[in-house]
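Thread: "does anyone have the structure for this chain?"

Original post by V.I.:
We have the sequence but no experimental structure in hand. Need at least a predicted one for the grant figures.
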Amino acid sequence: MRTAWAIYKRELIANFCSPLAYAVMVSFLTFNGVVFWFFMKITASNPAVVGARGPLQMFFGSTMLSVLSLMIFCPALTMRTFAEERRSRTMDTLLTAPVTDEAVVAGKFLGAFTTYAALWLPTLLYALVVRRYGPVDWSGLAAAYAGVLLIGGAFTALGVMMSALARSQVTAFVMSFGVIGAVMFALGLGAYIFQEEAQRRFFSYVNLWEHLEHFSVGIVDSRALVYYGSVIAFSLAMTVRAVGARKEA
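Reply from O.Q.:
Generated one for you, tokens below.
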């Protein structure tokens, strides 16, 4: 536990002292600020079109803009976790240190996830902006943030796994983006394609769009918790095996 904590602190320092990390943060806040402004403008100019959905529900809901925010920035945050160790030739030093593979993976994952969560803190100001013009569903907002953290945790775990397998940060980003797009995004589209009930239920269970929509309106489905929790556990277990295989090589 102590070694995992030491690696976690090392990752946080590396994240918040890296120019690349600040470039990701500025890009993230700029992108989401523009998205939020866009939904605020739509809500104000076309209230009949959006119906009962407010700008916060649209911001966190199942739109391409919301999905892109997760698909792009999670790989950008995680691509350096192990790939950077290889580039700087510190991977062997880390693996031969008196730490377990589980501690290394846990520290790096928690460091990346904490950085991801920190990116969302400034977006709490969006609720204050909406509050000036109308009511805010605070319980629904809490569920929406729980959703982006849960889904982001799954994407972060996948990104860490890809970084452990890749030889460079660029490769890790491309692999993470591809896996997230294929497994977490495209797979869910099967719910709109297949007609058989069993198939529709399965693809609905892994449908990222549906999960985002539910979280955005305050619905926390236990099936989504199990699904994304399983993705996190599986990805981290595979990362531990990848790190262990490199140590034995």
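V.I.: this helps a lot. Residues 154 and 230 are 9 Å apart (CA to CA).
O.Q.: and The mean pLDDT is 85.
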